[in-house]
Amino acid sequence: MWEALIGFFFVFVPYAIPRTSATVSINSFSTSFPDLPAKSAVAVNRSGTCGALYVADPLDACSSLQNEGTEQTRLVLIIRGGCSFEDKIRNAQNAGFSAAIVYNDQNDGSLVYMMIHPKNITVHASFVTQFAGEILKRYAEEAIVRCCLYPNHYESSWTVLTISFISFVVICAIAVFVYFAPRHWSSSQGTLYRSQRVDVEMVEALPRFTFSSAHPRDCHTEDTCAICLEDYKDGEILKVLPCRHGFHSICVDSWLNKSGTFCPVCKHDLATKIACSDVKKGIRV
């Protein structure tokens, strides 16, 4: 199950990167382009960021930019190359722009994940293809156009899918644990219980003798049963454990079947399967 979860992360999580989309509006005309936000730049919130779009001067934004716009929110369009992404973004920020859109200088249709140092970066920064950048540049040079950056709801749905899938896997794992854990515990308890009981054949094979107060006994048997605390009476059948302690036959059978595998007096464990031959040599039934 964990292997499947790890595989899911490698396959689907790259799609869950919160991309955005750039929308340019000219009078009644509007179109959208996919873009990829720069790492560590300020993220675009749900309401988006809109403002007048200007073409960078100079276009590569590798030096100080001109910003003669009067709008409160201004976005700048920059071409890739000439210097680092961080230099471009900082120059745009220093010039008073609220967001920077960098477009590819190569016509390969790919989006580049811009890596910048987050220290003191306060503007949005996104990367678009060369095709999108050329269209934005053409319209921005002809007139003042309104450009907006919005979170991509399609990509957000991948994030929701990721969370949903992980939640489903966790719930399944918990359900499997809840289902099998009691059975495993019950089985282990049963095995433990069975291991703490003496085999019936072994109990039956224990040597016995008839108690007589008038004859000496070749075992460590007192005149009182240590299990029921009753005195032995002549003619009662006693059983002797491998440790040479004797008890009422009924008492020791019940003890070994219910209470454990050890002698009630010396705690010798019968589960060690010590042979009873030594007992049989000295005790006759």
Automatic annotation (TrEMBL):
Keywords: Disulfide bond, Glycoprotein, Membrane, Metal-binding, Protein transport, Signal, Transmembrane, Transmembrane helix, Transport, Vacuole, Zinc, Zinc-finger. GO terms for cellular component: endomembrane system; protein storage vacuole membrane. Gene3D superfamilies: 3.50.30.30, Zinc/RING finger domain, C3HC4 (zinc finger) (3.30.40.10). The chain crosses the membrane at residues 158-180. Residues 225-267 form the RING-type domain. Its main location: membrane. PANTHER family: RING ZINC FINGER DOMAIN SUPERFAMILY PROTEIN-RELATED, RING-TYPE DOMAIN-CONTAINING PROTEIN. This is RING-type domain-containing protein. It comes from Quercus rubra (Northern red oak).
